[in-house]
Design goal:
single chain, alpha/beta, 2 domains
């Protein structure tokens, strides 16, 4: 099912925090997820209301139209390739507080993809929105194949290399390169510096240091963003030399952990 809140947003939002709160309050489960997303980092969602001030009025409709144009074909491809139908999940289209351009979570009792139009606008992913959709469907495919809530799996930060890598590989299958998160020279830089990225990831794991700089859009590592997605993709490609795609999706957590450490050392 598609929960499309965009028209409600356009009717209620007047550019003020109060207008956004009036809109999002109509969707209590969604509002609670936005609050919880910031709370787990020790932050308050209220501190991020000012983010909406950055957006020009035309940016929201542009992100919305691009999303609606690209979504049907990718959903059809996912059903054709992976046997996952629209009865298996929900899609939520909303305007949040830059919690993510796309994220997969449980909503209305089903694994669901949430598309944040304000984050799409912030990242400028209008032309690459097909890749973003494919990436989030990658998480959904993984969730349904494992029959496990990926958010709980990702409570161990190390698992992000596995889950994001799997989603990146699905995006690669569905839409090819350039990926939605690529920018000029990014892939080539990551390929040249793969050994360095592996060593830094392994060092952070050993020292129990945060892995966010590999993944978050607000971070850089060695002057580059999103390097964890490249490294995760390479991890999945490495696993594909030994296992089927479905077997990779269903690996036991302890096996994933061991394989990641082996990959990083290789």
């Amino acid at each position: 099912m598609i929960f499309n809140t965009f028209q409600d947003f356009m009717e209620r939002w007047d550019g003020s925090p109060e207008g956004w709160i009036a809109y999002i309050s109509n969707y209590p489960e969604l509002f609670e997820k936005i609050k919880e997303d910031y709370a787990r980092y020790g932050a308050s969602w209220r501190d991020y209301l000012k983010l909406l001030d950055k957006r020009k009025p035309e940016e929201f409709p542009k992100a919305y139209e691009r999303l609606r144009e690209a979504l049907p074909k990718i959903a059809a491809d996912v059903e054709r390739l992976f046997g996952i139908t629209q009865n298996d999940y929900n899609i939520v289209i909303y305007v949040g507080l830059e919690n993510g351009a796309g994220w997969v979570t449980e909503f209305m009792g089903k694994p669901s993809i949430l598309f944040g139009l304000e984050a799409v606008a912030e990242l400028g992913w209008y032309d690459g929105i097909g890749g973003l959709i494919a990436h989030e469907f990658g998480h959904l495919v993984h969730w349904l194949m494992r029959n496990e809530n990926l958010e709980k799996l990702e409570e161990e930060a190390l698992m992000g290399l596995y889950t994001e890598g799997y989603a990146q590989r699905v995006e690669d299958i569905l839409t090819g390169r350039p990926w939605h998160l690529e920018y000029d020279g990014w892939f080539e830089w990551c390929a040249r510096n793969e050994r360095c990225l592996k060593e830094e990831f392994a060092r952070r794991v050993r020292k129990n240091e945060p892995l966010n700089p590999f993944f978050g859009s607000w971070y850089e590592l060695f002057g580059m963003k999103f390097t964890g997605y490249y490294l995760g993709y390479r991890f999945i490609r490495w696993l594909e030399e030994m296992l089927s795609f479905e077997e990779i999706a269903k690996l036991e957590k302890e096996m994933v952990r061991r394989m990641i450490l082996e990959f990083l050392e290789g």
